Amino acid sequence: MTHLNWGIIGCGDVTEVKSGPAFHKVPHSSLVAVMRRDADKAADYARRHNVPKWYTDADALINDPDVNAIYIATPPDSHADYAIRAMRAGKPTYVEKPMALNTAECEAMNQVSRETGVPLFVAFYRRALPYFLKVKELVDQKAIGEVRYVHVQLNWEPADRELGKAAVPNWRVTPAVSGGGLLHDLASHQFDFLEFVFGPVKTASGISRNQADLYDADDIVVANFEFESGVLGSGNWCWTVNSAQRLEQTQLIGSKGKLTFSFFENFIIRLETETGTEEIRVPFPEHVQQPLIELIVQELRGEGKSPSTGKTGIRSSQILDWITA
């Protein structure tokens, strides 16, 4: 494969800046078709992003002979179906995270990839972002010595759309569509990156509850987990605190210091050792998925290797299943 002609299934918000434009900007890659069930929105996206074709039917895009790779950016409840169809059509597939509704669906996707020999990738793009690679570099260089434990903390207030008599919670807190609640949407990124840094999690357990009754999904989760390397971890996530209590940070505690960083906001890496405190800033690219997309294109051209595949993508779904079981 010398040039990647991508088609997007589900050209919604995530594709506007994070991913969509990157397919045009990566060398040896183009975005040639998009699909959305709403014809007006599909046509509008194609016009604004200079995409020559648009569809309202996924099979039409999958079977377009001009499309030789497919990006699935729909909610998780359709990831497995579309990915399996795309791979059976012989087209390398890049799917949004979380990879699917649950571990069983992820395994079904990986099984088709093995059967067909068609590559499957997952949009855990933090594995390729310079900010997060800097965190991994500091750990690998033992800037804080031997890491003893990890603590993940996320306290956010409810979104306006989730409050009041006219509340209309979105798909991310609808378990039948998302696979769970906001934990599945956000912590999938966190656990994927933590495994990228520390290796596999071998056990995980937790308690998940719905305290505020704003929607059907859990709104608070606490968890404990252990890596095969011996590093221990804990985490707490709550989406119904007061805005004054908003906090999102992950801390790595080592034998010689502490490393604090963020997955979703306040992107400063804080390194604390006996010699003092250093704040490290690493700029983000305009399109955060572009570094990973570039690696995927390189792999499909036989020139490199993507760090995020179906094989790695299933892992965060497994961990979330353990925690929320």
Q: Mean pLDDT, as a whole number?
A: 97
- Proportion of residues in extended strands: 25-35%
CATH homologous superfamily assignment of the largest domain: Dihydrodipicolinate Reductase, domain 2
Tell me the helix content: 25-40%
Contiguous low-pLDDT stretches (5 residues minimum) are none
Count all strands and give the number.
14
Instruction: Spell the H/E element sequence.
Output: EHEHEHEHEHEHEHHEEEEEEEHH
Radius of gyration: 20 Å
CATH architectural designation of the largest domain: 2-Layer Sandwich
**Termini distance?**
42 Å
Coarse morphology: globular
What is the number of helical segments per DSSP (H or I, 4+ residues)?
Answer: 10
Structural class: alpha/beta
Q: What is the name of the CATH class of the largest domain?
A: Alpha Beta
Largest sheet strand order: 8-9-10-7-11-12-13-14
Stated plainly, the CATH topology of the largest domain is called Dihydrodipicolinate Reductase, domain 2
Number of domains: 2
Characterize the biggest β-sheet.
8 strands, mixed
Helix/strand layout:
Layout: E1 4-9, H1 22-25, E2 29-35, H2 39-48, E3 53-55, H3 58-62, E4 69-72, H4 79-88, E5 93-95, H5 103-116, E6 120-122, H6 130-140, E7 147-155, H7 175-178, H8 182-198, E8 201-209, E9 220-227, E10 232-238, E11 247-254, E12 257-261, E13 269-273, E14 276-280, H9 290-300, H10 310-324
Parallel strand pairs: 1-2, 1-4, 2-3, 4-5, 5-6, 7-10
Antiparallel strand pairs: 7-11, 8-9, 9-10, 11-12, 12-13, 13-14
Helix pairs in contact: 4-5, 5-10, 8-10
Explained architecture:
The chain is α/β, with parallel strands linked by helices. It has 2 domains: about 5-125 and about 295-305, 3-Layer(aba) Sandwich (Rossmann fold), CATH 3.40.50; about 130-285, Dihydrodipicolinate Reductase, domain 2, CATH 3.30.360. It has helices at about 20-25, 40-50, 60, 80-90, 105-115, 130-140, 175-180, 180-200, 290-300, 310-325, and strands at about 5-10, 30-35, 55, 70, 95, 120, 145-155, 200-210, 220-225, 230-240, 245-255, 255-260, 270-275, 275-280. The protein has an 8-stranded mixed sheet with strand order 8-9-10-7-11-12-13-14, covered by helices on one side. A 6-stranded parallel sheet has the order 3-2-1-4-5-6, with helices on both faces. The longest helix is centred in the middle third of the chain and has 17 residues, at about 180-200. The chain is globular and about 60 Å long. The mean pLDDT is about 95.
